[in-house]
Amino acid sequence: MELLKALADKILTLDGAMGTALIAKGAKGALELCNVENAALVEAVHAEYLEAGADIITTNTTCADALCLEPYGLQSRSYELSLAGAKLARQVADRYTTADKPRYVAGSVGPTTRNLTLANDVKREDVAAAYADVVRGLLDGGVDMILVETITDAVNATVAVEEVRKQNKDIPIVVSAVLARMEGRVASGATIAAFFEKLPMEEIAVVGFNCTNGVKPLESALKTLAAATRKPIIAYPSVGQPPMPMTRYVKDMEQLCRSAMLNIAGGCCGTTPAHIAGIAKAAARWRGRKFDK
User: Fold this and answer.
1) Using an 8 Å Cβ cutoff, are 218 and 245 in contact?
2) pLDDT (tens digit, 9 = 90+) per residue, 154-170?
3) How far is the CA of 128 from the CAs of 36, 108, 271, in angstroms?
4) Quick count: other Cβ atoms within 10 Å of Cβ 26?
5) Cα(174)–Cα(168) distance, integer angstroms
6) What is the pTM of this model?
7) Among 142, 160, 12, 38, which Cα is nearest to 87's?
8) How far apart are the C-alpha atoms of 83 and 137, rounded to whole Å?
9) For the sheet containing 206-210, what is the strand order?
10) Residue range 2-204 in CATH 3.20.20.330
């Protein structure tokens, strides 16, 4: 698996926020619609992160599933928007790829608007169908991995992984959960160990966290996760509320890299190409976490 080979050599840098970057450039409404109506805007964000040193860029498809698109009347366009988002990211990544620095595309699959553990207005097969369209578009668009991100419900994550494997047996799957404010737990309230135990871990290549309130909550969470699995670990926190100063954010992320707790480091909500440039430089100075291949 090419991804695992790359992770064995160094800490890879993931890009930063897509949504807040598009909004800062004037985008409104359903941001995934930009993939077909304002492709140049999406391409510009991808290029800025690649210029900053990102090894992996994520597609603008986090909310491309039918459940998220329904309020905008766009639910029938899920596959179209996912395919377009994947093709855009693939084209830009290929332009920046060199023999010394390959660039990868992660197909973003978000949590949808429903948590199956709690929702009483949607069935498992409905969520599965919503995930299936996004995954099909991403795979047809040529992504290198599927990133099931911002997950709070282990059932949702499991359904997403199942849909990926129905369509592709080999593509690497990354699953990233959201932490609760209570230490040692994910947003659903489950302990970190219990949450990941519920996932089909044999099908998942990389696990970790995103969208935390700044970097600090990751320290103990990553230690807990590292003790529970021998898989590679990803972390890409938000800038937090109130927003962390960029220099502090990068310094804290470097500390995680220095502690050999990460294999992929990046940014979530509020992060910019400047944040990613800092992370890329920091990640290059340290070896990644050792994992079972």
Assistant:
1) no
2) 999 999 999 999 999 99
3) 24, 16, 31
4) 8
5) 14
6) 0.97
7) 142
8) 4
9) 12-13, 264-265, 233-236, 206-210, 173-177, 145-151, 104-109, 56-58
10) yes
